[in-house]
Write a structure and sequence with these properties.
alpha/beta; 190 residues; binds adenosine-5'-diphosphate
C-alpha cells in the first residue's frame, strides 16, 4: 500500500526494520540513547552485536553532534550502520518520540511530528534516497497506533514540499496485526 505526495512515495510495510533494505533506518530511541528495549534494543544488537557497545557509540555521537547527553524531540543523532550494511543500510538516525501512556493530545502530536520531521530532514541532508521508520512511540511509550500512523501521513506530506533527495519513506510495522491496523488508516485517510 502506498501513497504519493509530490515526488515522494510513502509506503506501509511489514517486517523487521533491522533487515529492511533502505539507505537509512530510524530508531525510536529514548532521550539518552540507552537502547534498553523494543526496537532500539533490536537495532543495537543487530548493528553492533553488542548492545552496550552500540550505546557507547551512540552517546559519543550525541556528544559530538548535539553537544549534550540527551536529545529533545526533533533533535536526531546519526550512527553508522555497522553490521546492517549487509542490507544496504548506511545510517541509523536516532530520534525521540513522545511518551503517551495511552493518552493522546495535540502536545503529543506536535512532539511526534518534530521527531519524524527531524529524521526526514537529516536523511535529506545525508543525501539518502530511502528511509524506513518504526512506529515511533506506539510501543513501550504507549501512543495509539492509529494516531501515530495519521501523524506520519501528515508529516510526510508536509516534508514532501522540501525534500531534495529522499524519494521513498517506509513505515515498517513489526506485527501483522499492527500492519493491518496501519493499512486501514491509510485506506480511510489516503
Ligand atoms: P517506543 O518506546 O517509541 O514506543 P518501541 O521500541 O517500544 O518504541 O516500539 C515502537 C514500535 O516498534 C512498536 O510498534 C514495536 O512493535 C515496533 N518494533 C519492535 N521491534 C521492531 C523491529 N525489529 N522492527 C520494526 N518494528 C519493531
Amino acid at each position: 500500500m502506498e501513497l504519493r505526495f509530490r515526488n515522494l512515495i510513502f509506503k506501509i510495510a511489514q517486517g523487521d526494520i533491522t533487515r529492511f533494505r533502505s539507505e537509512a533506518i530510524v530508531n525510536a530511541a529514548n532521550k539518552y540513547l540507552e537502547h534498553g528495549g523494543g526496537v532500539a534494543y533490536a537495532i543495537a544488537r543487530a548493528a553492533a552485536g553488542n548492545v552496550r557497545e552500540y550505546i557507547r557509540i551512540s552517546k559519543e555521537a550525541m556528544r559530538e553532534q548535539i553537544g549534550r547527553d540527551w536529545i529533545e524531540h526533533g533533535e536526531v543523532v546519526v550512527t553508522p550502520a555497522l553490521r546492517l550494511e549487509q542490507y544496504g543500510i548506511k545510517y541509523v538516525i536516532h530520534t525521540v518520540g513522545p511518551y503517551c501512556g495511552g493518552r493522546w493530545d495535540e502536545d503529543k502530536k506536535e512532539k511526534l511530528k518534530k521527531a519524524i520531521l527531524g529524521a526526514l530532514r537529516k536523511a535529506d541532508e545525508l543525501k539518502v534516497r530511502s528511509i524506513a521508520f518504526p512506529a515511533i512511540s506506539a510501543g513501550i511509550y504507549g501512543c495509539p497506533l492509529e494516531e501515530v500512523v495519521r501523524t506520519f501521513l501528515e508529516t510526510v506530506e508536509k516534508f514532501s514540499g522540501e525534500a531534495d533527495n529522499v524519494r521513498e519513506v517506509y513505515l515498517v510495522l513489526y506485527s501483522s496485526e499492527d500492519y493491518e491496523r496501519a493499512l486501514k488508516v491509510l485506506e480511510v485517510e489516503g
